[in-house]
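queue> pop job 88
queue> type: inverse folding (structure -> sequence)
queue> payload:
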């Protein structure tokens, strides 16, 4: 893929750069010893962002206890959850025209990725969450810029061998390359934007072990998210999701029984995360 062409496309789409305040918050929350006072002061500079944080902090998901300050929200939510809320809110502001199914998928994949990271210890939960959240971030922007992108949308979100070729034929780029550039412009860690750019390729296309493992987490997370939405799944020794089943399990050092366990656990997490969704599913494997 021609990176220069993708960069031109990103500029042409008119993607706003991440707000300076969000970059500053993300940098502070990523420190080994973040300064709660500085974070509170930064968020206090953006009334809209502060209101969103407090609304989520007061939601039933976090216990529904009264929270009336950013400092309280930080203490109650924890730094990782707090950071994820900030990044999710900022991304949604940029891609606000996307439909609910896109946001549900992105949030599901983010949550599942964080869970798999915790189980496998191959990367941090926060890094895996951001990868899941941003992995398809270019899709709503490409849809907005190119109405005919709908022709290849189903292909774009799948893992067929010719998916990126079909995208390129329509928009002269693909959502992986554009999405990676967006993540890079938001100053996300290198492994995140590199994984986004490579996540529709096989592992042989990338030499960095950290990227290869992150790709495996993302592939499995997307599979589980898809199973959650369609409400039925089967995991056995010869089940094959795309051509990546065996290499994904090998990279994560897990087997089919582990995948089944992951599904059961994450279905429970998604039901709790999305209590008002019409897509609530059984938490147990059929």
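queue> result:
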């Amino acid at each position: 893929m021609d990176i220069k062409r993708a960069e031109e496309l990103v500029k042409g789409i008119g993607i706003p750069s991440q707000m300076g305040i969000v970059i500053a918050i993300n940098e502070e929350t990523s420190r080994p010893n973040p300064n709660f006072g500085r974070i509170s002061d930064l968020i206090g500079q953006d009334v809209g962002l502060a209101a969103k944080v407090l609304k989520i902090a007061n939601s039933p998901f976090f216990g529904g206890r009264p929270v009336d300050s950013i400092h309280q929200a930080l203490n109650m939510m924890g730094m990782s959850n707090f950071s994820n809320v900030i990044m999710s809110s900022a991304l949604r502001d940029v891609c606000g025209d996307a439909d609910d199914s896109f946001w549900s998928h992105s949030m599901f994949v983010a949550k599942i990725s964080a869970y798999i990271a915790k189980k496998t210890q191959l990367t941090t939960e926060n890094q895996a969450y951001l990868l899941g959240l941003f992995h398809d971030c270019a899709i709503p922007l490409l849809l907005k810029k190119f109405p005919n992108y709908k022709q290849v949308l189903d292909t774009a979100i799948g893992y067929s061998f010719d998916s990126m070729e079909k995208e390129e034929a329509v928009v002269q780029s693909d959502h992986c390359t554009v999405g990676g550039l967006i993540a890079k412009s938001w100053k996300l860690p290198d492994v995140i934007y590199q994984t986004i750019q490579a996540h529709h390729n096989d592992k042989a296309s990338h030499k960095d072990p950290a990227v290869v493992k992150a790709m495996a987490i993302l592939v499995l997370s997307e599979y589980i998210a898809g199973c959650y939405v369609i409400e039925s799944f089967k995991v056995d020794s010869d089940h094959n999701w795309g051509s990546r089943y065996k290499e994904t399990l090998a990279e994560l050092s897990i087997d089919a029984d582990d995948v089944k366990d992951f599904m059961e656990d994450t279905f429970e997490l998604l039901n709790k995360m999305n209590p008002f969704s019409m897509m609530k599913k059984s938490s147990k494997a059929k």
